[in-house]
């Protein structure tokens, strides 16, 4: 059983009063049964999923409960491989040993270096060399030991016996490793200090389960300590002082409160996302839209849709390697169903068969053996196809080959046609041309990803440097602004102080000179009046200069604000330009990655394990059922929005699917619109053809419309990449 905090973990017992019709929750790997989902079952599941468990057998840590169980099971299976002839000897050395595990393993290894056991197979020296043998019996007499050996042949059977000295025996190495010995010791013991072998295993090998005398003395001492502890507890029941009684009551109250807290039901907080099947509706859930019903409209049988998509995706992805012009999925589906030979089917088979011949493999050898012409044309392509079917089936007498040879390929069932094409694709994937293309794509993809990573790192570094530079400039501007403000305030205070002092001096002079003016007024002396006028002019000049300085300061602050606004506008424009360039680089990167297409991966799964597929060159979102037997699709933006609105992000699978749909939303919508436009255009063209057809007088023998007026698109296919 896995360990939690280095201690065994007890499983929950099943309720005793369960009724047969009662619904319960059961843990798959422990068979524990719970009645409550949120309070018991989910709490236990969350505990089992945490990486806090330890494998008891191997000591591996940071595992989930199920991983620890698997590790213990594997270790148990491995420990059963321990040689049976060594079990009794090893268990006797392990029983009641006080050594730690590493020292115990080392001690056993040292003991077994020069000690041989009955039933052990090893090698012994004989007159004609070293031969394999088996120890049949250990013979001891007068303190000496010799071995009765059985000499073995190649089939490990005893062919002769002899008694030999231990010096003639050769053991190259022990038949078990140190790790296997450790596992065997852990699996065979119930405790490790001292080591105690399981009772059943000890009785099976005749090993004593009675502890030695030293352990008995130790047990007696522990019993004595326990009796002393009980005596102290009895003394504690004697009358005590008020202070001790008060402390004891406080401790009891604290313990009782802790017990009440432990017994009170805990509110389990579920950490989403969890497995989709465990998600239950709750009050805080948003209103999910109803999932739209996907379309099941396929021309071919449902069980063949997967093969159809696989063949078409291969041809679209490796069109340049095959020298085959791309074609739509609808055209390919119509060509498969068509009861005749279309140019699309002919070119498709010819392109893959040419690829197999150019690879010069097994199929090329078969064509050379049958002396086929090197050029595949519309007249002989069925011969090459018969050779391929014969090579794959291993026989040339199948009904399919006979029908193809008679020129009745179109009479084959859809299942057989797609089976042949699937075989051709599987062979084409193993050719050097496809493998080389894949290797080139992979290397180029790695280079693109590395370059993109370097660009991202350079952008992050540049952004960090700009941020540091901006912080430095802002600090400098603040310090300069603070210094300028302090200087301006000091200048203003100094000017105001000077003006106040000057006015005070002028008033004092005026007050002192007033009597003199009164005395000299009648004499006509006007010198002091001119001084007063001069001082007034000086004061007015200073006030004017202060006003001009204030206006200059306001203008400077306004210019600073304008500069700041201009810099912010430039920064926004620069950021928008960088964002646009980043988007353009991302679009270019995505375009280059699409050119180096390797394979199509599913977008994700919903809670019912339905798989969602989107192909780059097809305007539909395909849905594959869990059993891979049913296919359906969405083909409009409304259906896509309804699907995304019905996904519950609390589930792991639907959360991942929702993220992938959001990531490729614009691409999928563009593909939907493109397909709808093509369908509308083709419908309009067909209507125009019908309406523009003139009513001509024709005889009964020529009552058919011209061929080019009624050909469907798949019959007008032309391979432009030959």
Write the layout of secondary structure elements.
Layout: E1 3-4, E2 7-8, E3 25-26, E4 33-34, H1 37-49, E5 53-54, H2 65-79, H3 87-94, H4 101-111, E6 121-126, E7 129-141, E8 144-152, E9 158-164, E10 169-170, H5 178-188, E11 189-192, E12 195-197, H6 199-204, H7 213-236, H8 242-263, H9 305-317, H10 319-322, H11 329-337, H12 343-359, H13 362-369, H14 381-393, H15 399-405, H16 414-429, H17 432-521, H18 527-595, E13 604-605, E14 611-614, E15 621-624, E16 631-634, H19 637-646, H20 652-663, H21 665-692, H22 707-710
Antiparallel strand pairs: 1-2, 1-5, 3-4, 6-7, 6-10, 7-8, 8-9, 11-12, 13-14, 14-15, 15-16
Helix pairs in contact: 2-5, 4-5, 9-16, 12-14, 12-16, 14-15, 17-18
Question: What report would you give on this structure?
Answer:
There is one protein chain. With 722 residues, the protein is of the alpha+beta class. Among the domains are: 136 residues; 155 residues. 57% of the residues lie in helices and 9% in strands. The protein has 22 helices and 16 strands. The chain has a five-stranded antiparallel β-sheet with strand order 9-8-7-6-10, with no helix packed on it. β13 and β14 form a beta hairpin. α9 packs parallel to α16, α12 runs parallel beside α16 and α14 packs antiparallel against α15. It is extended and about 145 Å long. About 6% of the residues have low confidence.
